[in-house]
């Protein structure tokens, strides 16, 4: 057993991250999730009805991180159900197919829906998927450049991916995990600093009251 395996066994699950996959039907959301969680790829994934759920654990910054990935349906008849999975979401991955311009144009629907449903937007990622099919599409570079511009516009991190070859897949989820773990750590440090500062102020006030002989 490696030292990392031993460390992981001795650690407790201390961070749970909820991720939602968004995009039009057929853009490769399910294939991305399967490639990341199972290391497999198939051209026959079937249509997602409502949403599918997957869990993947990884060891980051001395703690076990559990990714709860919701793979939502891109079909129009199920779009009204997707907001049900936005509750407490911490990261959203917008996926488009580099061979399908409509899938890129469709990202604005999911972004607007997410923005409408949530007071604060989660961490955002845009994945330009199916890069393994670039030879079949002469306009793929144009779509990628447009995708990059859109990502910048909405404040999302941009990745080029292939669910078939696994290109860029691991990097997306590691980016999300590292970023959120770091954000949580900064939040904890800030709260500790605030509590510590408050205690010092109260101690000073109490000390001054004792010196002055004040009482209630």
Automatic annotation (TrEMBL):
A Pfam family matched in the record: Ras
CDD domains: Rab
Single GO molecular function: GTPase activity
Family annotation (InterPro entries): P-loop_NTPase, Small_GTP-bd, Small_GTPase
Keywords: Nucleotide-binding
Lineage top rank: taxon: Eukaryota
SMART domains cross-referenced by the UniProt entry: ARF (SM00177), RAB (SM00175), RAN (SM00176), RAS (SM00173), RHO (SM00174)
Protein name: Ras family-domain-containing protein
Organism of derivation: Anaeramoeba flamelloides
């Amino acid at each position: 057993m490696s030292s990392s395996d031993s460390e992981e066994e001795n650690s407790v699950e201390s961070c749970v991250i909820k991720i939602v996959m968004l995009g039009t039907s057929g853009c490769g959301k399910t294939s991305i999730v399967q490639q990341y969680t199972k290391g497999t790829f198939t051209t026959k994934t079937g249509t997602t009805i409502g949403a599918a759920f997957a869990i993947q654990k990884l060891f980051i910054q001395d703690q076990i991180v559990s990714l709860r990935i919701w793979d939502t349906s891109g079909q129009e008849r199920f779009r009204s159900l997707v907001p049900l999975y936005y509750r407490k979401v911490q990261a959203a991955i917008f996926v488009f197919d580099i061979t399908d311009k409509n899938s890129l144009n469709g990202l604005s629907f999911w972004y607007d829906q997410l923005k409408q449903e949530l007071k604060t937007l989660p961490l955002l990622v845009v994945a330009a998927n199916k890069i393994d099919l670039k030879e079949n599409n002469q306009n793929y570079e144009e779509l990628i450049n447009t995708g990059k511009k859109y990502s910048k516009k909405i404040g999302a991190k941009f990745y080029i991916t292939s669910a078939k070859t696994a290109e860029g897949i691991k990097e997306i989820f590691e980016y999300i995990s590292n970023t959120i773990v770091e954000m949580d750590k900064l939040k904890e440090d800030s709260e500790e600093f605030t509590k510590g500062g408050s205690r010092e102020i109260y101690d000073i006030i109490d000390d001054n009251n004792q010196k002055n002989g004040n009482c209630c």
